[in-house]
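User: I'll paste a sequence; please echo it back and then give the predicted structure.

Assistant: Echoing your sequence first, then the prediction.
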Amino acid sequence: MPVPRSLLTRILLWHGIAVLATAIAVSAGIYLFLEGTAERFQRQTFQAQVQAIRDGLRAEKGGRLSLTPAAAREASDEGRGLSFRIVDGEGRVLLAPDGAGVFPLAQVPRGAEEAYFTRRSRTAFYSGLSVPARIAGEAAWIVTIQNLDHPANVVDDIVRQFLLYGLAVILPLLMLMLGIDALIVRRALRPVTRASAQVRALDPNRLDARIDAAPLPVEVRPLATSINDTLDRLVASLHLQRDFTADAAHELRTPITIARMRAGEIADAELRAALVADLDGVAGIIANLLQIAELDAMDPGAGDAIDLSALAADCAAAIAPLVHRSGRSITFTAAPAEVAVRGDRDLIARAIGALLENAVKHTPVGSSIELAVSSEGAVEVRDDGPGIPAEQQQFVFRRFWRGDRGARNNAGLGLAIVERVAQIHGGRVQLDSVPGRTIFRLEFPNAVGDAMIDRPTR
């Protein structure tokens, strides 16, 4: 049997099995007790009948047997289905009450000891007691019987139907109990459910978030504590890596600057230009590393209200000379109305600039680049370049990933910076690329209308 995944289902399943097994065991025990008690009472009744027959038995002239009226009344009671027979060794009836029905005497035990028996005829179910006796010097047996199907015999009916009626009562009670158990277990697991919601809501950008273990049950609290400890170790490891990256980048800036100055003293103009270009590329990579380290250390904040269209226009104007020198064109489309987003102006400008630089690097000469701002608070950078292969699109925002491994001065950090800026502002960046058309969409969910815009002083 497959194990249920739900803890609630497991508890109810095993509890239901335990309760049902207990109910059946208790019912069977009570049934056996009642059956044994009823059988003991029947034996006592039969023995009282036999004693009454012995005390009231008379032998008349001619060997005929009879009972005194008192003994006859006690030995035979048709109102309770009680009757008797006295038979000889050959099974012939020596004495029976008047009007006694037919009973299969051939099946009655006739041994040296008294014997309790049950028999079924074509019309009824009987129980009885066969007791050996000596009558007029001859072997005989006093047989007392009771018709268990007689309407007056309700004890045996109750015993026989106890299990059926008991289960008819127990099963609804079991279902009611399981329903109550479900409510109890759900209430008991409510702190666990809340803790699960806290785990699902953990934001990778909020490294200080932890699970509140105090309200959890004692059995579950160690799990929450272990998760919190794991998060602490993870945060410590991230801080260590971040500090190492920042320290290494800082330490490299000075040697790179010195190397660039010395490269400018080289007499060979071609070699000097190549070395300076390489060192400038390395310096750009180091700057990106520092930028990544700073972004990773930042927590999301409300920020100031910024006019997204105006900021995007400034970014387009800043990169336009580079675009035109590289043989490409750029156009800008502002939103129909003023669009304000809350955030850090410099970071958003850096993200838009990185998208534009990425379009310049990865589109051929003659391509057109479009920068557009929508009224929903989104910035789109479009180009008509070759596009990004479908199998590579899932990697473009990964740090240090490059589609062109042979490209120089490209560490694969630009789009990672864009994604991190989007995360800090509670937004996201999306890619839609097919051959001949690529769109990067930077969305800001906190866009507001008619807000007070903090414009930089020009």
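The chain has three domains: 7-158, 221-292, 301-443. Residues 7-56 form the longest helix (50 residues).
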